[in-house]
Structures are given as C-alpha cells and as structure tokens.
C-alpha cells in the first residue's frame, strides 16, 4: 500500500485516512487476542515499563504535588490558549523562526511540502529525516511527501522498525512494541538494503547488534539530509522555544545537522512560561521511560549563525483540537503529554494491542482523544469510548491527571446522543423494553414472576444447581458471547419477603 519507491508507512497512512474501512475496536481486538506472540510481546514490554516507572516514581515524596502542578499548568495554558499561541508566534518570530498556521491536515501538509521543495536545490536528494513524528502520522504527512516524490525517513529506532516492516505503530512510546527481537532481525535483513546501507549478513537478534545496524543505516541519511522534520514535546510561549526529549540521540542529529528544520507542532503543546517546563521535565521521563531524566533534552529558540540549521520553521496545527477545546469535559484530553503511562497499565491495551484502536493514538488516551479529533462518524471511532473496563488505572498513573474513565463515559453519552432519532440498535431496543417494564409496578411484578418461573424450570430440568448460563439464544447471543449469564432465581424478592415475613426470623 506504500507508494512505489517510498518506504514510508503506507499501511498506517491508508488506515488513518480511511477510518470507515476499519473494523470496530471489539472486532479488531478479537484478532489480536488470537495472536499468542503478540500477547506475549505486549505482556513482557508493558510489565517491564510499569516496573521501571513504579520504581522511579516511588523515589519522590512529592509525586502527587508534581501531578497537581502539571494539571494546573496545562489547564491554565488551555484556558488562554489563543493568547499563549500569539505570544509564542511573536517570540519565535523575533528569534528568527518562521511560524505557519494550519487549520487541518490538508493545509499542514501543503505548507510542509512547499517548505521542503523550497529548501531543496536541483541535484539534492529528495528526502527528509524525521523525529518525534506522531502528529505528522496523524495528518498523513508521509503520504503527502511521497506524492511529491520526497522520501521521509523515520529515525527513531522503533519508528524505523515499523517503517521498514511496512507496518504501523501500536504504542505511543514504543511504536514497535508488538515486534520481538527475532522479527526485528528479519526485517532489517530483508528491507534495509533496498533503502540504504544493508544490515550485516551475520546480524543476530542481540539488542546491541540490532542497534548498531540501525545506527549505521541511519548515519548516512543524517549526514546527507538537507531538511529535517520534527515534532515537539513542548512549546514555550514566553521565549518561542521548542523542546524535544528522547533517549537515542537521533533527535539531536535531526535537530542540528540539516540546513532546514521544519517542526510540526500541535497547538495544545504550548506551555506559558519557561518555569513551567521544569515540572514536565520531571514527570514526563518518569512516566514514559521510567527514567529520572531523559538522556537527550534538546531546546532551540530560532537559528544561530554557524550552529545548527540556518532556517527554522514551525507549523502550528489545529486539526480538530479547537473542537475538543470547546467541550468543557472533553478538553481535558488535550492535557496529554504523550507519556504512554496509561497504555502500560491498561488491561485492555495489554491484551488487544495498539492496532485494534485504528488510530495513531492507541490505548486509553487514544480512546478519548481520537473520537474528538476525528469525530464519531465511523464505526471504529464510535466504538473507541467502549474500549475500556473503566477500572481507573489510567487516571492513577497519568502525570497530568486526565480522568480518562470520566471522559470515556462522557463520550459514550455523546455516541448515544448522536444516534437518537434513527433506527434503534439492539441495545436501544433492550433498554427501551426494560424501561417499559420498570416504569409500571404491575409489569415489573409480572416480569419478575415469569423470570422466577423460568429459573425454577431451568434449574430443575436443565442445569440443576448450576448458577450460570453460558449462552443465550438469538438475539441475546451477541450479549452473552462475552459474559456468563446467571440462571434466574426460583422466586422473586417479593415472594421471598412474604415467605419470610419481611425477612425477619420469628423467635
């Protein structure tokens, strides 16, 4: 599905561009549950990251104070987002950066493609290197670049694995979390030679050897690229600065070697002041990689003569974010700093994997963010608010205290409200029937007696003392396929009450 000659993640982009073609979360999850290798990979990776996070968070006595501070800072930034964005533009422009505004994916892609075309001279290789690119995957930038004949090379190790494997990311922090080392080795051996320096013939699945093969493969791209495209973890309005935190050094190479740097940044990444950044440089690494601080923290404020890129551009992207901002409840999702802590503790994600969510943003945060950015028009987006057991573990670990369970319930309400007035589904029919029965005491008593009579028959003739029914007949079979249904009691509560004289034992 990739464009010929362009090994970007065509599968990812095609899926993101056509959510109507994707199955509902529940259907996609069934496929993932049937894959034992995927489940084993996910369980190992998420449990390892959870343990590391718990250890470094446990070192801080003021962790909850930091969470409260991070929540307050992000809320303050969102409440006056327009002012902070204008302040960022003014300060970045004063520092020599050119700021562009994009209302949606199409406009953002057009701006970036034009900037890349302007930066390349005749005879230059038509390529860019990329880092921190979740937003660029959201807007399908790689597709737009490929259509213009420009190769986009992912330089994060996990993103490289995904790209070479013609796959799509399944985790915010570790996009290739669904791949094990043996699979990575095969991908490198089969795919690297077609797009650059080949992997060594004697490559093993030892992590050190895999990292070395990736480093040598990427080094030639870093050294020759004239243009780099980055995202940003944070944008500081007070100074017009951008911040990228990473663990491998690939970001540092992208941000310093090319002549032109184009940063594609979501408008929600704004922090009001330089002082605010200090809080997030504590909570982000602990929540994401389980480290006290990131090995590489890059901060830049415009170009500098003789050091780094000569031209810097920032593209501020909306793409549905102001729609989310307009929702007093839903806007909390915009506090997200993409740490992935919620994915690593989510029992649903651990079993279903990231691809089941049909979005570049998987897991609990994807279940509340994606439907707000894309709307709830497609089946997959309508299903995402239900991709949770509402256990609350995601809120407990979120460094900016996003109450994801409450947002899920809020979005479920919106999904139901959006479908009012149309042809009712099976669930709506069942609920209306229950409402009709429960609205009248006589109907309720009759239904209870019928259920008790049915329960007595089932127990005496079919199941004996067995307390559960495994499957209900159609049309209730779809509901009971994933639930054990209790056999109805042999008497109603009212019958029991009368038989026991109000539930009291006489002396």
- Give the overall form: elongated
In the sheet with the most strands, the strands line up as 1-10-7-4-2-3
What kind of sheet is the major sheet?
6 strands, parallel
| Count of β-strands | 12
According to CATH, what is the topology of the largest domain?
A: Rossmann fold
Keywords: 4Fe-4S, Electron transport, Iron, Iron-sulfur, Metal-binding, Repeat, Transport
Pfam family, one: LUD_dom
InterPro entries: 4Fe4S_Fe-S-bd, 4Fe4S_Fe_S_CS, FTHF_cligase-like_sf, Helical_ferredxn, LUD_dom, LutB/LldF, LutB_C, NagB/RpiA_transferase-like
Domain Lactate utilization protein B C-terminal: 419-499
Summarize the structure.
With 507 residues, the protein is an alpha/beta fold.
Task: Explain what this protein looks like in three dimensions.
This is Iron-sulfur cluster binding protein. Keywords: 4Fe-4S, Electron transport, Iron, Iron-sulfur, Metal-binding, Repeat, Transport. InterPro entries: 4Fe4S_Fe-S-bd, 4Fe4S_Fe_S_CS, FTHF_cligase-like_sf, Helical_ferredxn, LUD_dom, LutB/LldF, LutB_C, NagB/RpiA_transferase-like. Residues 333-402 form the 4Fe-4S ferredoxin-type domain. It comes from Mycolicibacterium chitae (Mycobacterium chitae). This protein has 507 residues and is of the alpha/beta class. The chain has 3 domains: 1-66 and 343-422, no CATH class; 80-154 and 226-319, NagB/RpiA/CoA transferase-like (Rossmann fold), CATH 3.40.50.10420; 429-499, no CATH class. It has 24 helices and 12 strands. It has helices at residues 10-17, 25-33, 36-57, 63-79, 81-94, 105-119, 134-138, 141-147, 157-164, 181-195, 207-224, 250-256, 274-288, 321-325, 341-345, 347-352, 363-374, 379-383, 393-397, 404-418, 426-438, 441-463, 477-480, 493-499; strands spanning 98-102, 127-131, 151-154, 227-230, 234-236, 241-246, 260-266, 270-271, 296-300, 311-317, 468-469, 485-486. The protein has a 6-stranded parallel β-sheet with strand order 1-10-7-4-2-3, with helices on both faces. The protein has a 4-stranded mixed β-sheet with strand order 8-5-6-9. Helix 4 crosses helix 13 and helix 17 packs parallel to helix 20 (404-418). The longest helix has 23 residues, at 441-463. It starts with 9 loop residues before the first helix and ends in an 8-residue tail after the last helix. The model is unreliable at 1-16 (pLDDT under 50).
């Amino acid at each position: 599905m990739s464009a010929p000659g362009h090994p970007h993640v065509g599968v990812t982009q095609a899926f993101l561009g056509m959510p109507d073609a994707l199955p509902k979360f529940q259907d996609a999850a069934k496929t993932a549950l049937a894959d034992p290798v995927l489940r084993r990979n996910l369980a190992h990776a998420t449990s390892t990251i959870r343990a590391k996070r718990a250890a470094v968070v446990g070192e801080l006595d003021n962790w909850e104070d930091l969470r409260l501070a991070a929540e307050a800072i992000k809320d303050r930034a969102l409440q006056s987002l327009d002012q902070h964005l204008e302040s960022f533009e003014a300060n970045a422009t004063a520092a020599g950066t050119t700021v562009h505004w994009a209302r949606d994916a199409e406009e953002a892609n057009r701006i970036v493609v034009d900037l890349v075309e302007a930066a390349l001279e005749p005879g230059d290789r038509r390529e860019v290197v990329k880092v921190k690119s979740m937003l660029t995957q959201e807007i399908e930038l790689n597709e737009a670049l490929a259509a213009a004949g420009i190769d986009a090379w992912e330089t994060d190790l996990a993103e490289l694995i995904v790209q070479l494997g013609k796959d799509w990311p399944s985790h915010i922090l570790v996009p290739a979390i669904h791949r094990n080392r043996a699979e990575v080795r095969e991908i490198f051996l089969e795919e690297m030679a077609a797009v650059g320096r080949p992997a060594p013939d004697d490559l093993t699945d030892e992590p050190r050897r895999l990292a070395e093969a990736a480093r040598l493969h990427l080094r030639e791209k870093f050294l020759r690229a004239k243009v780099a495209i980055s995202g940003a973890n944070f944008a500081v309005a007070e100074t017009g600065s951008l911040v990228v935190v990473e663990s491998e050094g690939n970001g540092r190479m992208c941000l310093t070697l090319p002549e032109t740097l184009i940063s594609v940044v979501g408008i929600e990444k704004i922090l009001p002041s330089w002082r605010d950044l200090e809080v997030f440089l504590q909570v982000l690494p602990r929540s994401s990689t389980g480290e006290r601080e990131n090995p590489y923290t890059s901060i830049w404020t415009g170009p500098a003569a003789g050091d780094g890129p000569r031209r810097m551009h920032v593209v501020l992207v909306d793409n549905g974010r102001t729609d989310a901002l307009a929702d007093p409840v839903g806007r909390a999702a915009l506090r997200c700093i993409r740490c992935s802590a919620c994915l690593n503790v989510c029992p649903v994600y651990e079993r279903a994997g990231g691809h089941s969510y049909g979005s570049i943003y998987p897991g609990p945060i994807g279940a509340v963010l994606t439907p707000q950015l894309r709307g709830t028009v497609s089946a997959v987006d309508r299903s995402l608010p239900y991709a949770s057991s509402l256990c609350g573990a995601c809120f407990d670990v979120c460094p900016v205290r996003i109450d994801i369970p409450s947002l899920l319930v809020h979005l479920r309400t919106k999904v139901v409200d959006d479908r009012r007035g149309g042809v009712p589904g099976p669930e709506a029919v069942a609920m209306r029937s229950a409402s009709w029965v429960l609205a009248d005491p006589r109907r309720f008593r009759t239904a209870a007696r019928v259920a008790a009579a049915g329960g007595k028959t089932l127990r005496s003739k079919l199941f004996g003392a067995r307390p559960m029914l495994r499957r209900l007949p159609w049309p209730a079979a779809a509901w009971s396929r994933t639930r054990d249904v209790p056999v109805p009691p042999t008497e109603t509560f009212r019958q029991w009450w009368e038989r026991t004289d109000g539930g009291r034992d006489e002396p």
